[in-house]
Amino acid sequence: MNDPAPQVIKMYAAREEIYPRETSGRYARLRWLCVWLTQLAFYCTPWMQWNGRQALLFDLAARKFYIFGLVLWPQDFIYLAALLIICAYLLFLATAVAGRVWCGFACPQTVYTEIFLWIERKIEGKRSARMALDRRPMSPAKFGKKSAKHLAWGAVALWTGFTFVGYFTPIKLLGNEVLTLSFGPWEWFWVLFYSLATYGNAGWLREQVCKYMCPYARFQSSMFDRDTLIITYDGERGEPRAPLSKRDEVNGGSCIDCSLCVQVCPTGIDIRKGLQYECIGCAACVDACNGVMDKIGQPRGLIRYSTERALMMHYTPTEIRQRTLRPRVKIYAGILALIVAAVGVALWLRTPLKLDVIRDRGAMGREVEEGMIENVYRLQIMNTTEQAHTYRIRVGGLATLSQVTPEEVRVEGTETKAYPIRLRTAHGAGQPGSNKIEIELTAVDQPSLHVKEHAVFFVPR
User: Fold this and answer.
1) SS3 label, residue 114
2) Which segments constitute the 4Fe-4S ferredoxin-type domain (predicted)?
3) Distance of CA 365 to the CA centre of its chain
4) Separation of alpha carbons 375 and 358, rounded Å
5) Cβ contact 149:120 at 8 Å
6) pTM of this prediction?
């Protein structure tokens, strides 16, 4: 008896290539507006100048973060953390109100996929032409089109990687290194890393990033409720589906089963089956369906932004807007407002001068000429402004406490300076052991810029 042929069971379905159809309409224009605004901001911001330096620069080597007129140091990391928290709450608020509107219009994955798809359409043609090209065997014409497309993708990806690294290394210096072919190994690594990430994600992975790699798609439902705006299909109005030629025979609904809503979807889903986690809320299906409705003389809105409750209760647009300010949204907005206010007040009250006092432990209090007791300190002065200042040093806390070293020190803008000082007091002015003193630093040209630190003066027993 012959053994049966082995069967191969595939645990994962092979990916089906998605060829999104180009669409036009209100939301397509809005998506391209977001593309232009985000990319103008991304590509142009590193070239902006502020006080003679790059306006936005996260200089990791120097451990300084320049954000226009604000200079943050590692000690100010809490402000960067607060900025990330604010961005997160903005995303939560937007999701609670309008679902995955961020994903559909402003997410970098969506934006660069739109750009790469536009390049693909310009070189390979419309959806049907691209599908036919991929089915044909390799030929000089096909090789030429594919090569041109990937070269264009590579150019955009390289420029994107270069620009991204320009936020961490001064971009003018980076540009000069490109022209002189003097890139360092780490610069080569990061530029190529982000270029390959852009090329791979937007050119090859596309919808797979949204469907399988992005964690946001997995937990977005926790921020949804029945009043969250989502892309919806009005089944009550659209069903039963029927081709236009047979609608009268079967008393069909508004949906003529043209499948354009599926053809334009960048993730390849059928919105008529209900909301799915793959839906990124780009509203391409809304534009496609509205165009069909216009052609067959039906009202727009068979597929539209709406809510589950609005579909069930037949709310008007005004009633949908009235339910926007519900408890969940108010809580997100309230928390966001409190965080923004707290960060704003903290930045307003922030003193752009920092002082650390370090006593020389190798030389405890010692007796010098005329019976005076001397302690040595090192002042670590950090001027976080971009202007140079001369600071006057004042000490107090002990009778007859005085400085032997000069009382003024100059610190350049965004500089940290170690400045040694020697303090003396008369014998018997303090108790044996540790005595509390204070050291104050005040800018000569700006008296409001001052800081005070406590220290210990040691008197030998």
Assistant:
1) helix
2) 246-274
3) 52
4) 11
5) yes
6) 0.88
What is the Cα–Cα distance from 151 to 134, expressed in whole angstroms? 18
Lay out the sheet containing 389-396: strands in order across. Answer: 408-411, 389-396, 433-443, 450-459
Give the pLDDT of residue 133. 96
pLDDT of 399 reads 84
Whats the size of the chain, residue-wise? Answer: 461
Which residues, 6 or more positions from 186, have their beta carbon under 8 angstroms from its beta carbon? none
Long-range own/partner contacts, residues 244-248 (CB < 8 A, 24 or more apart): 244/296
The residues of the chain scoring below 50 in pLDDT are none
Distance between CA atoms of residues 224 and 14, nearest Å: 31
Domains annotated for the chain, with CATH where assigned, are: 13-350 (no CATH), 353-459 (2.60.40.10)
DSSP 58-101: EETTTTEEEETTEEE-GGGHHHHHHHHHHHHHHHHHHHHHHSSH
